[in-house]
Fold each of these.
Amino acid sequence: MGEIQVKDKEVVVPGETLATGMDFLPSYGTYREGDKILASRLGLVTIEGKVIKLVPLSGVYHPKRGDTIIGHVTEILLSGWRIDTNSAYSAVLNMKDATSEFIARGADLTKYFEIGDCMMVKIINVTSQNLVDLTMKGPGLRKLRGGRILSVNANKVPRIIGKQGSMVSMIKQYTNCRILVGQNGIVWIQGEDPAQELLAVQTIKKIEREAHIPGLTDNIKGFLEKNRGPNAPQPQARPQSEGDTNDL
Amino acid sequence: MRLNLRQGHRVRVIPMTYEKRFDGRAFDEMRPIEAKAGIIKRAHGSGWFKIGNTEAYAAVYGPREMFPRFMQNPKKGVLRVHYNMMPFSSAGDRVRPGPSRRSKEISHVTQKALLPVVDLGEFSNAVVDVFIELPQTDAGTRCAGICAASIALADAGIPMKDMVCAISAGRVDDKMLVDLNYEEDSHENGVDIPIAMLHNSKKISLIQMDGELSSDDLKKAVEMVKKACDEIFEVQKQALKKKFEIGN
């Protein structure tokens, strides 16, 4: 009879046998070879009933339709901007998707976005040749002014956001920073006090390091409690301002 | 056995057969192996593999945009391997830095050895760069490089159906042995056969031979390598798992 060879939530390496027998089904990150299920990448085993899948722990971001990401302008094109997506593929933000303003033919596009400008954008399409189209029309999608940019492992983004944004809103409460997390692993942080910004950066780095360790929320809460300066404001539920949401 | 027999002395010729290995190992015993994953922080994945006095570092970057453009493949991603021995790495005779005939060949065979396990199908036009550096060498560098690169690729989250394990086998006089060191490798009557194997299927992805060997001995060499590869896989697996252990 079929048998699982590994523990649930264990880290496995490529080629490692996860289960034998035909009782289990291979899902993402696994494949069947004969009557065995093997891992096809490095990841965390997740067993859901009969289905075995892997949650990746590492890897570069790969653009996906519907993702909200933070990118920056690398080039001005004839009818839009080329945006770096922190992946192997750059994206194009067409001017008709960038603004509802009328842009005259031959207008200087740098009036809207300059090279180096950071922005929160949404991926509307990824072609089979990995050409990526972006849009800025949507809630919370905008150019990011000021603040600081942080780059993290894109696979850890769900942990940084937490269930229904619980983790990121906890960091916001403790540090009084505005935080936006892109699915591509770019995080934008803006706070009034540099020390608070730094605490937010350290917290996010800590989540990135410890994402696969159980009890993450409590650990992070403890870390924030401990490192909050003596004069720092009490954690408070700030009213959510526009564009500050992270309902990814 | 260069003896001067013209002097008319009766010389008793002592048979100089290879009875015992220079460093006292058993004939099917490898040098002590150590490995680590994730040692180069800014790389997407990295590995370190030490076997006896041979030491290899591998760093993987990507998938990322490929330059020069004409080398892009629109059907699948490209694996680019760069093998390099450091100038001070060998026994005092300085290795001239930069690409040589030898290092180009080894880069090429290493790429061919790793290609059967990596799945770059979804990374069209992109490249995965593998850099292998050898700070200290005592024969078996291409094998150590492949083992390190395999760890690094897995650590970088590249889809891989298996790990690649590599070790050299060979003959010194009439003895078959595994994992030759430099003394054995440069023995006047000897053969050196570096072999890379996929861990699960035991398929060979690299085999080279320096010297002459009977087909029976070659079969013996492959069997020895099969056994050694299981041990190497275990070391690679532990190295990768250790990176994600709690408190690491």
Amino acid sequence: MKKRLLSLLLVTLACVMAVSAQGRRGLRINEVMIVNDSTSVVDDFGQYSAWIELYNSTFAPLEISSVFLTNDRNNNTLYPVPLGDVNTEIPSRQHILFWADGEPNKGTFHTNFTFTPGEDNYIAIYDANGLSLIDEIVVPGNLLPGQSYARKADGEGGINNPDDWEVRDGSEAHYITPSSNNIIKSTNNKVDSFAEHDPHGFAMAVMAMCIVFTALLVLSICFYIINSIGASISRKRKVQALAGDSDEIEDHHHEQDSGEVIAAITAALAEHLDAHDRESTVLTINKVRRAYSPWSSKIYSLRELPRR
Amino acid sequence: MFSEFLLQNLQEFWHLTGFYNATWQHLVMLVVGLFFIWLAIKKNFEPMLLVPIGFGILIGNVPFNTTAGLEIGIYEEGSVLNILYNGVSAGWYPPLIFLGIGAMTDFSALIANPKLMLIGAAAQFGIFGAYMVALLLGFAPDQAGAIAIIGGADGPTAIFLSSKLAPNLMGAIAVSAYSYMALVPVIQPPLMRLLTTKNERVIKMKPARAVSQNEKIIFPIVGMILTCFVVPSGLPLLGMLFFGNLLRECGVTNRLAKTASNALTDIVTILLGMTVGASTQASEFLTSETIRIFLLGFMAFVIASASGVLFVKLFNLFLPKSKKINPLIGNAGVSAVPMSARISNNLGLEYDPSNYLLMHAMGPNVAGVIGSAVAAGVLLGFLA
């Protein structure tokens, strides 16, 4: 009963953890434009509306239907992202754009709220339960028309941390990127960094060898410890089996008879004496009872039942 | 009119045939494929790998009209070969092979003598030595990493890493890795003789102690957790390796272990070998880069084997006389299991017919499998 309870608890815990891991924690508000002054993008209706760019910072597709978008601190569930639209699944490391035009009848990606230019605008995303905050940001009120407020690097940084954000005015250094990466990468930064700082590969060789040695050294040490624990347990058992004659065990331990020596002695005994050693093993035969059920009879042939 | 129609169709058909589309590069690759098959059948060099790869090279280099949209080429999306090739390009065949390797491998020698793990680590220097030379030859760091992994002497790891770091070089890297694995009996013995003295070659090591089943069960669990905590990017390979080993050792999943080590491994080996071979299409394969990859692969292999032997010699300086290790087992630090361990054994017997090194060499040999997977994880973590 206790085992069952424990198993149930473990399974429940695993399920809870899995559900938590599958949540939308990786969803990020990535870039926002409060006043779209016709220098930015238009929606499907040709309107220049304010927009919010969301970013899936995980490496798996993210379904965001039933997530809540809001600009009201007192109302977490202001705009629920509708169900049933295939476009609400954001591919890994990709973006999606919402139009904050207060016209939800125009479609899934048009929110029922708008922003107030010239004032600080609060934006938040809440999970489907309406309670768990996923991300929030306060867009400063001094943003000019046509300027956006964006994360410096896509999806990176904390929640509501202005240090991770910057104002973008569309200039060469601060381009505005609705539905696109805030930083456009043409190459792999890691590779570039190694090519620049470690052109001969010496640093890589030293670091990598240290890591490989560390991994195997840790494993090796761990098994030395397990070996000694195992040896100690086995010694205790032998002492118990020989009714506490620890000296005999000690002597035997020091002899370290190898398998080859034992095999040679056994072979010699068998050859010359035709003798058999007396086994101390006790063989117990228990009848295995398994309640028959037509529902489970086939299962018996597919898997073994756990031992009690 | 009818004859014109007939001629036109026959002419179109002629343009589709291999005879019409053949180039000298195709013929060279067909000869390479036949050479691999000959090596496998006549010389018995890793036949399980070289027959599928060799025949795959033949399949991949049958000339055809690539503009006809026949959907038969391995690189044509939706073709049968392309679907089979997904296991290579997306990198899911190698972890399945590792599952089988785990289910086949007995880690007892390593558990009984954990210090042998360090030999497996030392041999990985071949990878990073080759990485440095590859950079010198002008390869980019990610390409250099993918090529250098050949030094691990582990085909699935080489395929896995190259599919992530340098997919365009994967065919050459895989063929190179498997070729050198097949040539282990040719490459390693002279090197081992060169780096050891007569006295060192006859060092007798104490027989390994018996390992309890509990230790064998704990090993894959602790091994997976520790190594993957250090190098999470090695998770696909290490996770499957240790999982396969747990299936083998736990004693209650014999059927699963048997399937993983027999049927599953055989199926994946067939598909992997054949598709890797077929991916060596002449246009992609016959380049100067391939020659450089083969040279680097050879060098990586030599450095790896030498580092294992030299490390044992260095290690012996710190060990008491009764616990000295025979440096002939150092070559087994590369993960060509069990070929390189057999070579240690054969060479040991050559100098002392009563000195059986096989079980001692199996320790570094399986440590090499873990080490090369860890090294691949490190390269992936740094460069992907």
Amino acid sequence: MRNLLAALCGILFGIGLAVSGMTDTRVVLGFLDITGNWNPALIYVMGGALAVTIPGFWLTQKKSAPLLDSQFHLPASCSIEARPIVGSVIFGIGWGLYGYCPGPALASLSALHWQPLLFVAAMTAGMWLEKALSSLRSRT
Amino acid sequence: MNTVPDFILPLAGGLLIGTSALLMLLVLGRITGISGIYAALFGKEPGGAWRWAFVAGLLAGPLLYHWLSASPAPLPSDAPAVLTVLAGLLVGFGTRYAGGCTSGHGVCGIGRLSPRSMAATAAFIGAGMLTVFLVRLLTSG
């Protein structure tokens, strides 16, 4: 049941990305190109998503537990720190170079072109590198 | 198709993405952060099969949409392979170091009104805009 719902949510998310044009790197780069031919599409995508999540999450967190689990699994920290900002700057540079963030890159795999495949392979390597460096640093 | 205003489809897509994230929290109690879900796919956490189900759905969604709407899937980027690899490495490393990406920080974190996620989102959008600007500056010279 939990897996069925997760699959359904994945499908909804994937359709959402495709409908909104976020699987097209040109649309995303067009949004980031504020001094050129600016494409505001991403504003509407974020706005539409937040219009659901801000009130929905607020109401949901009034419950003591989710419907199919004994507890919510939420990030521990909501405070501003260097780490999420530094990481996001690195992520943003890659995003601006190419036009894929992780969701659209994965969702584009099913189109069976080599570009998203290569991107996801490199992204996986980058994630592995981060994990390796983090565990190295925590050991010293 | 040309009679539909430009913002309708992005807005509709955004509502679907938000609905997906809301259902994930309401039913499974999980944050829909794609980079985190993907990175944990190969972990050994028991009961993690929902992640595989979600990612399978994520891949199926665009296929389903383009088939049902008879609209062509967008062509992939024509950027060279070396840029694809570099960008992929940065996106993978950065999103894990930041503990989230556009979905985890942008849609869910801001959805929880977390200042941490608001700062992260401002950082990746700002860095993305600056990168596009600098690339333009360097390549148009």
Amino acid sequence: MSAQTRSRSQRTPGERFVAAVRRRLRRTGIWVVLAFLAVWTIFPILLTLSISFKTRADVSADPGFIPSNPTLQGYASVLAQEGFRSAFINSLVVGLGTSVLTLALAVPAAYAFVRFRFRGRHLLLLFTLLPRLIPGLGLMVPLYRLAVWLGAIDQLLTLIVAFTGTVLPLAVWLLVGFFQHVPRELEEAAMVDGAALPKRVRYVVLPLALPAMITIGVLAFREAWNEFNLVLALTSSPGSRTLPYELFLMTQTTGFQNNPGQAAFAIMTIIPFIFVYLRIERFVVGGITSGAVK
Amino acid sequence: MTTRRATERRRRRRAKRAASRPDRGSLVGHSKATPYVLSAPAILAVSVLLAFPVVYAVWGSLYDTEFIGGPGRFVGFQQYVDLFQDPKFLWSMSRTFVFVFGVLILGMTLGLVFGFALHQVTGGMRFLRGVTIVPYLVSGIATAVIFRLILNQNFGQVNRFLEFLGIPAQAWFSDPNLAMLASILAQVWADLPLAVLLILGGLQLMDPQLLDAAEVDGATGWKRAWRISIPLITPQISLSTILLSYQALTSLGVIIALTGGGPVDATRTLTIALYETAFVDLETNEALAIVVVILLFNALLTLGYVGLSRRYNLDEQ
């Protein structure tokens, strides 16, 4: 800061003018970019929201952003679909199930990796690389064959287990990073006081790790809520699909397209999640970046 | 001078490691089985759900089945030989390269521009960082639906905007090149949050004194960005590049719901080829060979990723 002011006072008036113009240009440039960023990110969703409140005819006839004859027909047509209602419930069940199962498997494993030295600790490295090596896309066909062989096609539990497998490595990684920051002195103190392992974990470790567990719960839920490839592979009957697959089928219908309906469907899969996200943005942003890095 | 400092640094690191070693030991007073019992379910789940499919894919791709559900016949690498002589498969490979390359160019350009701009933002406009994440919450299928609506030839707002600029409305989904562009746009929209957050994170780790020093020396904004900021965030830039390639290489939902691989196979990437072979043509063994090819490309990316994290110590950040 002081270096900056010194250099400014040494400039001639001409140079100072050029510097001021440059600063002004730079500020304007940044604002233009930020405006573009907002348009790029939000406009597609807002335009979809606008279409979802139009009548089918108005989608082409009424170009305005604010619908001139706002209607809930689009939403009503989606809610009237048997497929949407069951898919919504399936998505909720599978999402919550995946969160719970992921945490149930990841918390003990991460705790063991952090607090104990045992053979098999080197497997932790595998957890970092596997999800990179094996994308969900590569799982489609093999898991489909496995599910057919086990007779587990079309069951929500199959989806929950499959999704848990894809989120688990990341969940363990995030939790390991988190447990490392729980001071072991706290636990040792509890141990001296006579608390056995289950008690220590319950009263010392878990309360401290709560933010990390919320992050992982939400990331697992997002994975299950949005996953398409594995649902495509592991379900075949209408009653067992989740929302993305149902939405995909809606786009495949031929004939006169129900554009407001499609828009309403998309919005209804996004909006609940945005509300959850806004409450816990802090955790999730950290989770995404560290998950991406690790 | 430098060697002495390096030795000193190495010595200190070794001392630090030695000091932290007792801390890494097990907790006392527990049964030897405890860590195994705690970690076994997760390790088992990951092996069955992630490792088994790879083994199965490699094994299955070496066989051929005459009819669905029939017995397999060992054919060695014949599936791969057939694939690489099949013009449709080669076409899919080239489409995949175009798609991944397009996503990288657009994604990295926007990622850098948005990252730098967000880095300058202070105060009340910080909420824009939160806004950047929103596409990350939207599923690939919903992304495709959104882009089908805004790129629609008749009522899409993008065409309205083009007409406003004096450019005629475009048939986004019947022109092969435009359909590819539309797929790239949708994919970048969905995955940009990762790149922007990584680059922003890198910029925030930067030492601001370096930039101040450059300003004193008379470096303009562009020069500072090119000569100082960009070199300093090379790790984050490389990492975003790899992550965007991963996402684009394995993207199925966005493309299948947006273009379905068309028109005239213009967007028939490897993922669409895999889907059609496995679930439309029901050629499981051939599909597994395609899976292995995709896994190999993926492994190449992972090698790059491991190299990067070694070089820049990303795990320690």
